[in-house]
Amino acid sequence: MDGSMNINPSEQELGAADAPFYLPQDDEIDVFAAAYTNRLPVLLKGPTGCGKTRFVTHMAAQLGRPLYTVACHDDLSAADLIGRYLLKGGETVWVDGPLTRAVREGAICYLDEVVEARKDVTVVLHPLTDDRRILPIDRTGEELEAAPGFMLVASYNPGYQNILKTLKPSTRQRFVSLEFDFPAPGLETRVVAQESGLDPDRCAALVRLAGKLRALKGQDLEEGVSTRLVVYAATLIAQGMSTDRAILAAMVEPLTDDEDTKRGLLDLVAAIFG
C-alpha cells in the first residue's frame, strides 16, 4: 500500500520456539487455540497496555501462522483493509490490503482497537465471521473464500467506548470473546522482571505503584498505567537510571499533562519509595 494510507501492517511468521514471552493469566491460550482449530473469530477486550497485542503475537508464533497487525484509527476505511487500484509504472494495478492478504494466505489478521475504524469496516468483517468465511471484493468482482488457517482477531478497550465509538451487539455476537485485565501483582512482577532484566524485588515495588495509580482511574487520571509502562520504567532502572527519574519519565509523564496531578502522583511515588 502507498504511504498516504497511514497503515502499517506487520508480518510475522515465527516458530513456537521463537514465540515472544507471554505469561498466561487464565485459560486464554486454550480458548484461543480452540477457536483457531474450529475457525472461530476472537475478540479481545481490555485496557490499553494489558498484553492483548503481545498475546496475539505469541499465539500466532505458537500456531505457526503469519500475522498481519493493523492499528485501527479514525480514517481507516474498508478499502484500506481490502485493497485498491494504484497507479504503478503507468499502469493501474490492484493491490491487496492486509485483510485480503490474510484471507488469501490463511494468516491471522489482527485489528487492534477496531472501534476506532470507520463504520464501513465492521460491515466488511461480517461475512468473515460466520460460517461463510468469505470476503467479497466489489472492486474486482471476486468473492474470496478464506484459506485454511485464516483467523480474524480484533481488540478494543471498553473503557474508551462512548455512544459514537462502540461495537454493535450484532458485531460483538459474531466473536468468541476474551476479557483481559492487568495481571495480578505476582504475575505482573514476573512479566516486568522477565522483560526488563530488573531484579524481582524492585519490580514488585514498581508493580505496587502501578496498582495505586490504576486506582486513580476515573478520578485524577483518565487511564491507569499500563504494564507496558511499568516495563519501560524497570528497563530504564536496569540500565542505571535513578528510580525517581525512571518513574517520572515512564509512569508519571505519560499519564497526564496537568501539573497539579503530576505533583499528586509524585507524592504517591514518594510514599511508596521514600
TrEMBL record:
Signal peptide: none annotated. InterPro entries: ATPase_dyneun-rel_AAA (IPR011704), CbbQ/NirQ/NorQ/GpvN (IPR050764), CbbQ_C (IPR013615), P-loop_NTPase (IPR027417). Pfam families: AAA_5, CbbQ_C. Keywords: ATP-binding, Nucleotide-binding. The keyword NADP does not apply. GO terms for molecular function: ATP binding; ATP hydrolysis activity. It comes from the Bacteria. SUPFAM superfamilies: P-loop containing nucleoside triphosphate hydrolases. Transmembrane segments: none annotated. Gene3D superfamilies: P-loop containing nucleotide triphosphate hydrolases. The keyword ATP-binding applies. Residues 188-271 form the CbbQ/NirQ/NorQ C-terminal domain. Residues 41-175 form the ATPase dynein-related AAA domain. Belongs to the CbbQ/NirQ/NorQ/GpvN family. This is Nitric oxide reductase NorQ protein. It comes from Cribrihabitans marinus.
